[in-house]
């Protein structure tokens, strides 16, 4: 629609958005009327990209991400993990340890209300879908089943996928869902994190009818997620003196967990810890100087001052010198990715890879390690040719221009799902042609 300020459904264009509420339907609202309004707004958005009343800002942002990911408003989720692969994967997933708590808290609620309880991993793959048999049967017709990927980048706005994308609890009602076959449902989901490192593990979701469009359901699923995190904290043995966890993927400031303390490190201290974790045998001052600084004029005194500050932060017993080394083993996320790739566990490696290693670091040794790890993972993904894993990489912020991965994804997807990947591939090739032309002599 060009120009006008109203849609065919009579709704004014959204120019002054109301506050971003976590709850999908405010008290007193008529679910049937709100559904009708949202269907009109959804039609408006899919027709010309305009967001109109009464779409919440949270949902508008999700629709826009879904459109950028070229999610079709129609269709069903893809089942990416077969029965055998799913069984092995979820048995080893950290959330498997809290499923007894999830079932205890949600069993009666789901059964009495004819709802479903679903738990997904950090990539949006459903690991468990349990609840009322009739509701499970209806949900299965849109592939809301274990092994299916419900990431926002794959199926558009939905509670578990959007909770992961936003890293916050969300409720999605009716036609707020991006895909039309899902718009008869209402769902609420909350993310679950590793209580030690803060790493996103997945989400807990409640799915059902309009009765879930209530603040209580959102509060309830948040409580289940928090109980799951508390259970994980109890199940993990207290960190002993010899246990150190280092998270440096996808973040410019590494997170160190040692002796029960969580320390967010400065940029330089992050680089030093990554290098010392990579070299448990230790590094001399000269080796660290070369590894950290591009500028050869940097004085050893500068490095010694940084190490002195780091020692005061960590404690006197954790950082030794001559050579500089950590006195306890380090469980580093980038080492975990490398180990899993070495054993051929590509999907398991992807669950840990939260992004490039210290992406803003220009330390020569860190930059080399960052490139090597990313190249190894992307090569493994291309060789594996799993469309779900390739899509997880291709739609990530660090790989949206990764031409070889988009080529592999376009080839790996079923023919009926190739259109979006092919369109993005054409864009990338066009951008490459333009860049190549500008670089030619005389261009």
Short descriptors:
443 residues, Arc Repressor Mutant, subunit A, single chain, 4-stranded mixed sheet, Beta-Lactamase, 5-stranded antiparallel sheet, alpha+beta
Structure description:
- The chain is of the alpha+beta class.
- It has three domains: 1-232, Beta-Lactamase (2-Layer Sandwich); 237-379, Winged helix-like DNA-binding domain superfamily/Winged helix DNA-binding domain (Arc Repressor Mutant, subunit A), CATH 1.10.10; 385-443, no CATH class.
- Helix content is 47%, strand content 12%.
- The chain has 17 helices and eleven strands.
- The strands form three sheets. A five-stranded antiparallel sheet has the order 2-1-5-4-3, sandwiched between helices. Strands 8-7-6-11 form a four-stranded mixed sheet.
- A hairpin with a 4-residue loop joins strand 1 and strand 2 (126-131).
- Helix 12 (333-342) runs parallel beside helix 14.
- The longest helix is centred in the middle third of the chain and has 21 residues, at 215-235.
- Residues 1-8, 10-20 and 238-242 have low confidence and may be disordered.
- InterPro entries: GAF, GAF-like_dom_sf, OmpR/PhoB-type_DNA-bd, Sig_transdc_resp-reg_C-effctor, WH-like_DNA-bd_sf.
- Keywords: DNA-binding, Transcription, Transcription regulation.
- This is GAF domain-containing protein.
- Pfam families: GAF.
- Residues 260-326 form the OmpR/PhoB-type domain.
Q: Layout of helices and strands, plus pairs?
A:
Blueprint: H1 31-48, H2 57-68, H3 83-91, H4 99-113, E1 116-121, E2 126-131, H5 133-140, H6 152-155, H7 159-166, E3 170-173, E4 186-193, E5 200-208, H8 215-235, E6 244-247, E7 255-258, E8 261-264, H9 267-278, H10 285-292, H11 300-314, E9 319-320, E10 325-326, E11 330-332, H12 333-342, H13 346-352, H14 364-384, H15 387-394, H16 403-412, H17 419-439
Parallel strand pairs: 6-11
Antiparallel strand pairs: 1-2, 1-5, 3-4, 4-5, 6-7, 7-8, 9-10
